[in-house]
Automatic annotation (TrEMBL):
Membrane topology: Multi-pass membrane protein
Name used for this protein in its record: SURF1-like protein
Domain of life: Bacteria
Family: Belongs to the SURF1 family.
A Gene Ontology cellular-component term: plasma membrane
Compartmental location: Cell membrane; Membrane
Length: 305
């Protein structure tokens, strides 16, 4: 009944279905990993107010070589709450322009914090609005405090798509906080991620607005994972349905032929012709034939009398 499954056509369809199903399962698993990764990031964002900050130097790889950036910590450590102590280097301060907070365009001010071992980490001290004269004009920025500073904040990965760096208003000016590119402008090694400041000792200037942290859309990846798994199941079900239809079609009895109407006159003619031809081929009994002829003559003679 199912021997047709061994034909090249059905073997090819089976292989194609299995390969497609496996690929869709793998895509679903990848989306599941993205969901778990993004969920972990969201958990770290939400837990920042209640968890204890860990020393930055305990989780990041130390950078080596002046003007270079250390290794990126990766997404597994994004938004981890950290603490670090050092001195601000205002001479290499960075203004990231075109940054939006609450629909207002302004600048994020990033200042290197130099640690006791000579390495540095970039600290995003907060957002300031653009002046009334225009978004390209020099912003009013509170001076970085001097002396030993302790910063508490969340670890921010380097931004992608690096933008050109210019010198403007006594600062480095850019659109993207790309740590490896900014590190080339520094006279010391720089850690591979920067810190989004939430607390500072001494206290940060109130002129700064805190940078809001957007949550990752983890549920979207979760939905995609379920979707790919359903597609995989549907492919197998569709193959099974086609196999069932083929099996039922091959085992069904052949339809009976319906009788057709015939021309009665033509049928009668056909029968008479068949009888005539049969008579011509039948062997003749000579005695019987002689008796028949004699009887015919006798009948004719009696008729004449």
């Amino acid at each position: 009944m199912y021997r047709f499954l061994l034909t090249p056509r059905w073997l090819g369809a089976a292989v194609l279905t299995i390969v497609a199903s496996v690929i869709m399962v793998m895509l679903g698993n990848w989306q599941l990993r993205r969901y778990e990764e993004r969920s972990a990031i969201n958990n770290r964002i939400d837990a920042a107010d209640s968890t204890q900050a860990v020393p930055l130097t305990s989780i990041l790889t130390p950078p080596v070589g002046a003007g270079t950036a250390g290794a990126s910590p990766g997404k597994s450590l994004a938004w981890t709450k950290v603490t670090v102590t050092g001195q601000y280097d205002a001479t290499h301060e960075i203004q990231a322009r075109g940054r939006t907070v609450n629909s207002d365009v302004g600048f994020e001010i990033v200042t290197p914090l130099v640690l006791a071992d000579g390495t540095a980490v970039l600290v995003d001290r907060g957002w300031v609005p653009a002046p009334a004269s225009g978004a390209s004009a020099a912003p009013t920025v509170p001076a970085a405090p001097t002396g030993e500073i302790t910063v508490v904040g969340q670890l921010h990965l380097s931004e992608s798509r690096p933008a050109p760096i210019e010198h403007r208003d006594g600062r480095l000016d850019t659109r993207r906080i790309a740590v490896p590119r900014l590190a080339h402008e520094m006279p010391y090694p720089v850690y591979g991620a920067y810190v989004l400041l939430t607390e500072q000792t001494p206290a940060a200037d109130p002129a700064f607005t805190g940078i809001p942290i957007d949550h990752e859309d983890a549920w979207q990846n979760g939905g995609y994972a379920v979707q790919w798994w359903l597609f995989s199941l549907m492919a197998l079900i569709a193959y099974g349905v086609q196999v069932r239809k083929e099996a039922q079609g091959s085992s069904a009895p052949a339809p009976e032929k319906k009788p057709t109407l015939r021309d009665r006159v033509a049928e009668a003619d056909k029968k008479r012709e068949s009888a005539r031809l049969a008579a011509l081929h039948e062997p003749v009994d000579r005695v019987e034939e002689a008796d028949r002829k004699a009887a015919a003559r006798l009948a004719a003679r009696n008729g004449q009398d």
